[in-house]
Amino acid sequence: MSEETDGDVFILATQGGITLVGNIAGKALGFLFVAIATRLVTPTEYGVFTLALSLVTFVQGFAGLNIYRSVDYFIPQFLSNSEYGKAKQALYDVFLIGTATSVVGALAVYLTRNQIGSVFNESLLLVVLVPFVFLIPLQTLNRTLLACFNSIKNMKFRVLVKNIINPLIRIVAAVALVASGAGVLGLVGGYLLGLVVAVLFGGLFLIKEADWLRSSSAEQVSTRSLVSYSLPLVLAGVIYALVGQIDYFAIGFFLNTSDVGQYRVAFLLAANLLIVLSAITPVFKPIVAENRTDSDLLESRYQLTTRWVTMLTLPLALTLILAPELYLSLLFTEAYTEASAAVVALSIGYLLNSSFGPEGMILEGLGHTRLTLLNTFILVSTNGVLDILLVPRLGILGAGIATGAALTIAGFAGVIEIYYLRRIVPVSMDLFRVWIAALGPLGIGWYLVHHTQGLIVLILLPILVIVVYLIGLRTVGGFSKEDAELAKRIDEQLGYSIATKMIGY
After folding, report:
1. Residues near 157 by Cβ (< 8 Å), separated by ≥ 6?
2. 37 closest CA partner among 164, 186, 168
3. pLDDT at residue number 264
4. 3-state SS, one letter per residue, for 430-444
5. Do 271 and 349 touch, CB atoms closer than 8 A?
6. Backbone angles phi, psi at 126, to 5 degrees
7. Which band of pLDDT confidence, cut at 50, 70 and 90, is reported for residue 321?
8. HSE-up of 380 (CA within 13 Å, CB side)?
């Protein structure tokens, strides 16, 4: 690998790895907050909290214009061209526009809170919405800061702000406030305080890390370009907010509320398969924006990233697909094992969607946000139509098939668009070898599940899947030179030859 190539690959691996660890920690703390919150307040109060959070989050999605998503498109380009003054002004403009429009959105929610409360016929909602409107500008500031860390490709600070500081402060503050007698407002206060502290620390980290903010003078940039880039993403965000919700609406209409609960846990479990893809995307988009004119380099990065995402997602997906009922009963009790078939359908859909790689970040990094909007519309409309057709016939399995199929179709649409625009594809022979290697753990895992029961399967299945999968990858030549170089660097950091021996390259 050339020095430039090696640098890009190493950035993808290290910063994506940092984000992956952060995502795992963030999910664990998120589950902890829910577990604590549901024990601190009554189910009705927690329901009001959840409803208010959903409302203000939905409003924030378009009140902030999603302009923060222009940060990791424009700023990497300015920085790569040493146009530090333009990068500084672009960041200022994003903060100013996003904050101003978010404050307008917050005022709109505050002024219409009586009407909102009457729609849901819940008086407590009026009380909770008053402090919760501050989440709208705070979340806009927080997301802009996270996008800044994406732009400078320093995920350490992103992880600290998003996955550690915010949820930890939220938990501690919520417990303290509820214990002091604040009730459901204690949960709101904890949520807001977590964001406030995260924004403060995020700002300090950014000023410390981005020396160009301190040393350069602002230069004029096109505000119109910032807004025109982000506007399609506003509509895409609003439409995407319906994903998952459509399933719940269809299940609630055609079936009953207990089925909604069953599907909710299936959705939560299967959605964890996106954890690898979501770890790569924050650092991948800036790399695309910096190299948007070099199609050969983009294809190389796209294929490498797609292979990594697929390689790391496959063992997780195989484990869930082979024994969904075991993990449902472990995490959510035996009462939720009826959702097993839905977990399988959703897992297949998320796996196929992940196997297309970060196609959405390719489109956004190239500036084609209108295609992102189109693909989001395809996703939601396909999901809705299939829900209507399948839920009455197949129950929650039909909803799982609908979402899985919609994710696959929308992802494939992105792949086709990228090929049409740049003749770039995510498929390579190395990716084909990864899928071949998955056949071994699939077969052996199936045999274990159908010939062994109970705790033994729970413990042995993930271990067996990973071990056989590694053997399969080594057998078919599934590891590449890039993998070997990264393994070597990992071993140098550890002081032991572990990673290199694992891949056997």
Report:
1. 149, 202, 205, 206, 209
2. 186
3. 77
4. HHHHHHHHCHHHHHH
5. no
6. -60, -40
7. very high
8. 17
